[in-house]
Amino acid sequence: MKRDDLTEKLLDIKREKGWSWKHIQEEIGGISPILITAACMGQMKLPNAQTQAATLDRLS
Fold first, then answer.
1. Are the C-beta atoms of residues 10 and 37 closer than 8 Å to each other?
2. Measured in whole angstroms, how far is the alpha carbon of residue 27 from the centre of its chain?
């Protein structure tokens, strides 16, 4: 799956569940909330520890 596809899937989950960016940031944690949002939007990569916390299976 490409980065754009992952971003779109995450945004779909966010909309379906009515989550705020703050909720997603708290679920992933460990780094700056701004960096988490940028990574979710496909603008940068998460460190390995946060990547595990951000798996689509866990968030969906």
1. no
2. 9
Task: Decide: helix, strand or coil at residue 46.
Answer: coil
- What are the domain boundaries of the chain? 3-59
Residue 57 above 70 pLDDT?
A: no
**CB environment 8-29: b (16+ within 10 A), e (fewer):** eebeeebeeeeeeeeebbeebe
Distance CA 24, CA 41 (A): 12
With tokens 């998460």, the residue in question is 46
3-56 pLDDT, tens digit each = 888 889 889 999 999 999 999 999 888 899 999 999 989 898 888 888 877 776
